[in-house]
Write a structure and sequence with these properties.
InterPro entries: LysR-type_TF_proteobact-type (IPR058163), LysR_HTH_N (IPR000847), LysR_subst-bd (IPR005119), WH-like_DNA-bd_sf (IPR036388), WH_DNA-bd_sf (IPR036390). By secondary structure, the protein is α/β, with parallel strands linked by helices. It folds into three domains: about 10-85, Winged helix-like DNA-binding domain superfamily/Winged helix DNA-binding domain (Arc Repressor Mutant, subunit A), CATH 1.10.10; about 95-165 and about 265-300, D-Maltodextrin-Binding Protein, domain 2 (3-Layer(aba) Sandwich), CATH 3.40.190.10; about 165-265, Periplasmic binding protein-like II (D-Maltodextrin-Binding Protein, domain 2, 3-Layer(aba) Sandwich). The chain has helices spanning about 10-20, 25-30, 35-50, 65-85, 105-120, 170-175, 200-205, 225-230, 240-250, 280-305, 305-310; strands spanning about 55, 60, 95-100, 125-130, 145-150, 155-160, 165-170, 190-195, 215-220, 240, 265, 265-275. The strands form four sheets. The chain has a five-stranded mixed beta sheet, covered by helices on one side. A hairpin with a 2-residue loop joins strand 1 (about 55) and strand 2.
Length: about 300
């Protein structure tokens, strides 16, 4: 008869939490978040059809039945560990750093710089996944998450590393076809919008006292990186985030027709679960992001006034 076994990851999370008396300490030992431990324990409780812990605010306590269960399965994990040490081949500890970041930021800022990080840290493999979901909605565990901020989340440390503003940008080819000498000339142009950021153009036009300006046309995209690509391809004018278009401004693929005004924007920040903040890989990646941001801030300042320098 085939043995009936509960989910082993859930069983491991229960054993660690029960032995240590803390979801947080169990998460630190297993290199996951406390939320992940809680989810595994809940899964095991559903599988068993019984409660395993009594939850009291920030502490947990085993139920009487769970104490007996832990007493029986605890030695089994010790036996498994001993058997593996005798017959198994030790594996190298993973050096993969998992990162989750917004798609446009990843495409236009992070990816072009990752080769530098790899050159300086060839022993660390970086796994990047993109998402615009709020931090608290992410289903998977990541070593480091990049989002806007600064925001505060319980159980996470936060560090801002890259600030930006927003201003109109377009291709120099477009300006050769249709000059743009003042904000009023936007009536002759196509304004590029992103559906998730509908207020960018209205707010900028209001800042130049032209809230009722009607452009020649408008084009809306569902992703911001598509909006910026359309600007590079001389389709229209976009509200460009300075941090993400600095390379294009420096290379001449885009120009900023007006020195200002610039709309304020949220900074890019790193968010790391407390139990991972001491991880050397995380610390190295955070420091590298901050150094790259300083270099890019200098480039962005050098790109200001690009219209007057043409």
């Amino acid at each position: 008869m085939k043995p009936v076994l509960p989910p082993l990851n859930a069983l491991r999370a229960f054993e660690a939490a029960g032995r240590l008396g803390s979801f947080k300490d169990a998460a630190s030992e297993l290199h996951v978040t406390p939320g992940a431990v809680s989810q595994h324990v809940r899964l095991l409780e559903e599988w068993l059809g019984a409660s395993l812990f009594e939850r009291h605010n920030r502490r947990v306590e085993l139920t009487p039945a769970a104490k007996h269960y832990l007493a029986e399965i605890g030695p089994l994990f010790e036996q498994l560990s001993a058997a593996t040490a005798r017959y198994g081949t030790p594996q190298t500890v993973s050096r993969t750093l998992s990162v989750n970041a917004p798609a446009t930021f990843t495409l236009r800022w992070l990816v072009p710089r990752l080769a530098k990080f790899r050159a300086g840290h060839p022993d660390i493999d970086v796994k990047v996944e993109t998402s615009n979901e709020p931090l608290e909605s992410l289903k998977d565990d990541y070593d480091l998450v990049i989002r806007g901020g600064p925001d505060t989340f319980y159980g996470y440390s936060m560090q801002p590393f890259l600030s930006e503003e927003r201003l109109p940008v377009c291709s120099p080819t477009l300006l050769k076809r249709v000059p743009l000498r003042s904000p009023g000339d936007l009536r002759e142009h196509t304004l590029l919008h992103t559906s998730s950021l509908p207020r960018l153009w209205p707010d900028w036009l209001a800042s130049v006292q032209m809230p009722d300006l009607r452009p020649a046309a408008a084009l809306t995209f569902d992703h911001f990186f598509l909006t910026l690509q359309a600007a590079i391809d001389a389709i229209g004018i976009a509200m460009g985030p300075t941090a993400l278009v600095a390379d294009d401004l420096a290379a001449g693929r885009l120009v900023a027709p007006f020195a200002g005004p610039r709309l304020p924007s949220r900074s890019y920040c790193t968010y790391v679960a407390d139990e991972k903040s001491g991880d050397e890989r995380v610390a190295l990646f955070r420091s590298w992001l901050e150094r790259e941001a300083i270099v890019k801030s200098d480039a962005s300042r050098n790109a200001r006034g690009s219209r007057s320098s043409r």
